[in-house]
Amino acid sequence: MIRKHIILICLVSAFTCGHAAATEPSVTARTYPRLTGGLELGFVESVISIGEYCYNTIDGRVYDTPRGFDFASGGCMSANFGCNFTRKFGLSLNAGMSLVSGKGIQVPVTMRATIYPHGCDNNGMFCFAGAGAGFNLGAESGTDALGTLGAGYRKKLPGGFSLDFSLRACASLGHPAIKDPNGGYVNKSQVFVSNACNLSAAFGVALIF
């Protein structure tokens, strides 16, 4: 009799636990998208430029430290591939192309960390920071160090898609070729110092899937 009571208790307990597990969401269940991809189009506005240049010319050594507002507009496009480690935190690799009037073409490749206070699978604000390298094409070939800091709003769409609207501040630090007042560029063997820091703002719209 005691054995029957024990078996009955075990069956009732097992049924109760199974029913609870079926009706309550598991804490380990992941309903948010783990792996994501996206495409972004944006507008870029260069705002401030700071430089330090020292080089030789036929007229002697030149030392110049230009700094101030440097407005120039352009566009950018990029693709990203990311992973959400939790509902509120993800990392993504972003690569694309940026073209700003008078500054040439750059191919930026950055790693971005994003925080979603309301969860990556919900509508709401998010903030992010990124760092990487920008590969300049053309006459001013070289590599810049890049940093970004921004925020945005995510709008969920049917079918697992999202639209991300973002506004970010961007900084780049590099060693560009120096334009010669007589035309062309100063020979690298005549350049002692060439440092440039550019600050810009960008607005982008991304389709995330």
Describe the 3D structure.
By secondary structure, this protein is mainly β. The protein contains one helix and nine strands; from the N terminus they run αβββββββββ. It has one domain: Porin (Beta Barrel). It has one helix at 2-23, and strands spanning 35-57, 60-64, 67-86, 89-100, 104-115, 124-137, 142-156, 162-174, 191-208. Strands 1-3-4-5-6-7-8-9 form an eight-stranded antiparallel barrel. The model is unreliable at 1-29 (pLDDT under 50).
Which helices and strands appear, and what pairs or packs with what?
Elements: H1 2-23, E1 35-57, E2 60-64, E3 67-86, E4 89-100, E5 104-115, E6 124-137, E7 142-156, E8 162-174, E9 191-208
Antiparallel strand pairs: 1-2, 1-3, 1-9, 3-4, 4-5, 5-6, 6-7, 7-8, 8-9
Sheet with the most strands, sense and barrel status: 8 strands, antiparallel, barrel
Distance between the termini: 60 Å
- The first-level CATH class name: Mainly Beta
Helix content: 10-25%
CATH-level-2 architecture: Beta Barrel
Strand content: over 45%
Largest sheet, spatial ordering of strands: 1-3-4-5-6-7-8-9
Q: What pattern of helices and strands is seen along the backbone?
A: HEEEEEEEEE
Under CATH, the topology can be stated as Porin
Query: What average pLDDT do the residues reach?
Result: 85
* C-alpha-based Rg, rounded: 27 Å
Spans with pLDDT under 50 lasting ≥5 residues?
Answer: 1-29
Give the structural class: mainly beta
The global form is elongated
Number of helical regions:
1
Say how many strands there are: 9
